[in-house]
Each structure stands twice: as C-alpha cells, then as structure tokens.
Design goal:
Helix content is 48%, strand content 13%. With 578 residues, the chain is an alpha/beta fold. The chain has an eight-stranded mixed sheet. Strands 9-10-11-12-13-14-15-16 form an eight-stranded parallel beta barrel, surrounded by six helices. Strand 12 (392-396), helix 15 and strand 13 (432-436) form a beta-alpha-beta unit. The protein is globular and about 90 Å long. Bound molecules: phosphoenolpyruvate and magnesium ion. The site of phosphoenolpyruvate has 11 residues, from strand 10 and helix 18.
C-alpha cells in the first residue's frame, strides 16, 4: 500500500524513478590475520581494488561533458592523483606484508595514520585534505568489501535517472549528482534556503529536504514518486497513483511549454511599468538556462561555486577567464558579479576552518574576504579587469557596518590604481553595490543607499538573521516566513531608502523568484527581480498580470498589520485580483 513521507518541497517539480540510497555512513572494517602463504594473494586483491577504483573514477571523469565547470572536474582529478600516490598505494601493501593483515585493515591503518598527521597540521587548508583521503579510501574499501548496493556521489551507473535518498547533501555533491543524471533527491536534513536547495531550484531539479527519516522499507530500485510541489515522497505506489502523477508531470511540462511564449515578451505590468527581470546563476548550466528563459541580465553570480569541489583556490587569471565567459555568453547584457560569499553552508576545502562554533555568524562572506586580502584582492582585480569587456557590476555580500563598506571601497580604489600601474584595462566607473542581508544593514539602508551604486536585498539571509532561524536547519523550517511583519518592514525600509537616494534596488533572494510574492513586491515598489532561471517565466507571467495602481492602494493596509494571518489573507486577496 502506498505510503507517504513529508518534508519541505524545495524545487517545484515531480520526479518518478528508482530509489537509490546514497551512502554517507561509515564503513565497518574488521582486522583479520592472513596466513603467510596467502599474503601475496592479499596484495593482488588490494592492487586489483585500487585499479578498479581508478577505472571507475576515470570513467566518471570521461563521461562529464566538456562544458562542465572546472570545479567539478578538478575535484575528480584530485582524487585520481591521490590514487597514484604511494602513501595510498604502496604503503598499505607494506602493511599487509609486515603485519600479515587483510587489505581492508591495512588501508584503514594507513588512512588513520595519515589522518593523524593532517590533524596535527596548523594549516587549515592542509588539515581539510583529510576529507579527500577519506573519499578515496572509502571508494577502495567498498570495492574490497564488495559492497555494491549503495551509491557514492559519483557512481554514475547507479545514479542515472534515480531519485537519490541521502541524509544530507552539500551543494558540491548536489552539483556532481546532477551531472550523474539523477532525476531528483530527497534528504533527511536541510532547509528550503540552504544552498543545496537553491542549487536544486536553479537547475530545475525536483527535490525535498527535511524528511527526518527515509524508512528502511524503501529499497534501492523501488519505483518512488517525488512531489516537489507538496514536499511528498511516495513509495510502494499503486497503479492509479502512478498514473495520476504521470498525468500531473505531463501537465507541468505543458504549462512550461505554454510559458515559453513569454520568452520574448517584455516584463511589463498591465499599467505599463517596466520591470527588470534578471537571473541568479551559480554554474555554467544556469548561464545557459538564463539565456534560454530570456533573462535581461545576471542579477547575481554566486562566485563561491568556483571555489567549491576543489583543493586549490582559483587565481586572478582563472577567475578572469570565468567572468569573461559569463560576459560572452550573456552577449552584452549586464552581469552582476558577487564577491566571494563562502562560509556557513558554502564550504571550500581549500579554506574552511570547521572549528568555528557558529559559522553563519562568523567569518563569512565579506568578513572572510576582508580578513584574507590574498583571497579578496585577486578577485577584485579579476572583476575589474572583466569590466573592461562588458557591462559588469560588482556586488558585496553580507555587509553589516559602515566600516566594512569604507574598507571595501578603499580596496577597490587601491586595486584600480594597481591595475592602472600594471597597464591593465578596466571600467573606471564600474558600479559597486551591496547586498542587504542583515537586519543591521536594512536598518541602515539610507547609509548604504547613499554610498553605493545599487543595492540588492538577499531575503534568504535577511529572513535567517531577522527571524533567528538557521536556514539549513530543518527543525526550524516551520518558522521560515517571508511574510513575517518584521521581514516586510525591513524590505520596505530598503526599497524606500533606494527611492529616497535614487539608488536602484533589486531583490535576489528566493522570495523574488516565488510568483506568490510578485504582486506584493511590485506593490512595495520593487522594480528589479533576480530569480533562479527556472522561475523567470512564472514571475514574468505574474508581472504581466499585475496592475501596480490597483496594488498600491492595498499595500498600505497590508503593511501596517502585525498579524501574520491577516497578512497571509491579504496576500491571497492581492493575488486573486483579476
Ligand atoms: C540571500 O541571502 O538572499 C542571497 C541571495 O544570497 P545567498 O543565498 O547566496 O546567501
Ligand atoms: Mg546571502
């Protein structure tokens, strides 16, 4: 009989496919002593496992399209290189021979010794190399144990068209899984605003997070249904349910096809107010999608994705190459490049120091950059150099105080001077804007609006910090509410400050991409929306069916209310206006 598990649907879509668990648990490795005469057989068994692991990785590497961002391929290359290293290939053989133990135990002992050495290192970058060693060792161990049923993030064969069930996924893993051709994913933990969720939305991949459990009754290979609209996972489904979901899937495709007619239509309201409709992008796929769905430019390029899934930091030239590629693909349309927003759930093994007690409130985003100018300045140089070749603006994430802003603007001037001394071209007037993501910044919006060329409201973080709910923690997802009176007041303050200082105000948080809020935001005076590419048509549709004159008459009544239910009801009324 059909049974249902509910979580938070983070990406609007339906997937029907084979269940495939993604193993993220520890393997149990036992020690066994090997009789002298069988030692060389054990060595052969170990060598064979390493060889198979290499072949698996090479096959994955070869199957990744050339257009895939370097971050993903670099991640696999690093693991391939490790598999050539004698520390992981020759040293375990020595152990098998000397300790007369099984291959699994020899590899485990070698891994533990390496992990101890890495743990003792002062350099946080080197310390985190341990994760890569674990990935490689686990792959070899699985072959030795003969475990096949559970997939790892790069088991391409098992993952093709599957619905992945995992405890949790990092954004990096989600990006990799997408390349393995999964149909969707379901995680036990995670919230709707985690970067993994954002990525799934961006890629148009159906997904559910925060289910808390994935019952053992669901076995790998079972046909399951993922309903991203309602946040439901259905298993053991009967024919009638399956048929109904297939029909819904077809309807969804039909609606998408109908919306396609909007591609070349302007984003303009019924009373002829033009709205600037831009796209948020992370990966190369999104840039293509942004073009496909008719974005008028890029309102948010999350550059931190260039820093993920790799063991080194991309330098100035490499970054410049990415920014120029972005400019070229957008064919003259404006692009907003956000400076590095690493930290909290966006981690880079090249940088992170995981020991911080509360990373969302720690050295994240611009704080991290101002504390690490070797990281920040090459990015400033690369963005400025890119500005010579197209319509580029730079955006600073997570500003909270005037002193940070002053320091950033000083650094921009210093870098401009250096570039000039180096004889390198840049746009002297490249606009510099900031994100309003922290209540302190929203409350000081006048200051930021006065000193910056544009502002963009990052509602994902603004809601997180205003309502004190960790955006990655599913236990507080129920408190997530873009319509909370406090959030609406802050958004209104920022938009008003922009009008007062004639500073353009955009919104690039997920709220901007949800058509349920389009009319509300238009009524509040927002005229620039930056949304995941897959949301462009829906939002454009909502814009084209809105009349700002009618809406603005209702908005003042709505915004004085402190009663959340009244606000929700008022939004329903607003959205029902024909
Ligand atoms: C936001 O916080 O709303 C935002 C757009 O930035 P990110 O989701 O990357 O933190
Ligand atoms: Mg943010």
């Amino acid at each position: 009989m059909t049974f249902t598990i509910s979580g938070t649907g983070i990406s609007r879509g339906i997937a029907i496919g084979r269940a495939q668990r993604l193993d993220d648990g520890e393997l149990e490795i036992y020690e066994a002593s090997i009789p002298k005469e069988l030692i060389e057989d054990e060595v052969v068994r170990f060598n064979h496992a390493v060889q198979t692991a290499r072949q698996q990785l090479k096959a994955i590497r070869n199957s990744i399209p050339e257009t895939t961002s370097a971050d993903i391929t670099d991640f696999i290359d690093t693991h391939l290189l490790m598999m050539e290293d004698s520390m992981l290939t020759a040293a375990p053989i020595e152990r098998i021979r000397h300790e007369q133990c099984n291959a699994e135990w020899a590899l485990k002992s070698q891994r533990d010794e390496l992990a101890r050495v890495f743990d003792e290192m002062d350099d946080p970058y080197l310390r985190t190399r341990k994760d890569d060693i674990d990935h490689v060792v686990t792959r070899i161990q699985r072959i030795l144990i003969g475990e096949k049923s559970t997939a790892t993030p790069d088991d391409e064969y098992l993952l093709q068209d599957a619905i992945v069930l995992a405890h949790d996924l990092t954004p990096a893993e989600a990006a990799l899984l997408q390349h393995q051709g999964i149909a969707g994913f379901v995680t036990e933990s995670g919230g709707p605003l985690s970067h993994t969720a954002i990525l799934a939305r961006s890629l148009g991949m159906p997904a559910i997070v925060g289910t808390h459990v994935t019952p053992q009754q669901i076995r790998d290979g079972d046909i399951i249904i993922l309903d991203g609209f309602r946040g439901l996972l259905l298993a053991d489904v009967d024919e009638a349910t399956l048929k109904d979901y297939r029909r819904q899937q077809r309807q969804q495709k039909k609606r998408q096809a109908e919306l396609k007619r909007l591609k070349n239509e302007p984003a303009v309201t019924m009373d002829n107010i033009p709205v600037n409709l831009l796209a948020n992008v992370e990966l190369l796929e999104d840039i293509r999608a942004a073009r496909l769905f008719g974005a008028e430019g890029i309102g948010l390029y999350r550059t931190e994705f260039l820093f993920m899934n790799r063991s080194d930091i991309p330098g100035e030239e490499e970054q410049l190459g990415h920014y120029l590629a972005l400019i070229k693909s957008m064919k003259g349309l404006p692009v907003t490049i956000r400076t590095l927003d690493l930290g909290a759930d966006k981690t880079s093994s090249a940088l992170d120091d995981y020991s911080r007690p509360n990373p969302a409130l720690g050295l994240r985003a611009i704080r991290l950059c101002l504390n690490n100018l070797d990281l920040f300045c090459p990015q400033l140089r690369a963005i400025l150099r890119a500005s010579a070749k197209g319509s580029v603006q730079m955006m600073i994430p997570m500003l909270s105080s005037a002193s940070e802003l002053t320091r950033v603007l000083e650094l921009v001037e210093e870098v401009k001077q250096q570039l000039q001394d180096d004889g390198l071209a840049f746009d002297r007037n490249m606009p510099v804007g900031g994100m309003i993501e922290v209540p302190a910044a929203a409350l000081s919006a006048n200051l930021f609006a006065r000193k910056l060329d544009f502002l963009s409201i990052g509602t994902n973080d603004l809601i997180q910090y205003t309502l004190a709910i960790d955006r990655t923690d599913d236990s507080v997802t129920y408190l997530y509410d873009p319509l909370h009176p406090a959030v609406l007041k802050l958004i209104r303050m920022v938009i008003d400050a922009g009008h007062r200082h004639r500073t353009p105000i955009a919104m690039c948080g997920e709220m901007a991409g949800d058509p349920r809020y389009t009319r509300l935001l238009l009524a509040m005076g927002l005229r620039q929306f930056s949304v995941p590419p897959t949301a462009l048509f829906e939002v454009k549709d909502a814009i084209r069916q809105s009349n700002t004159k009618t809406l603005s008459r209702l908005i003042d009544i709505l915004l004085v209310s402190d009663d959340p239910q009244q606000i929700h009801d008022a939004i329903d009324t607003l959205n029902a206006i024909q």
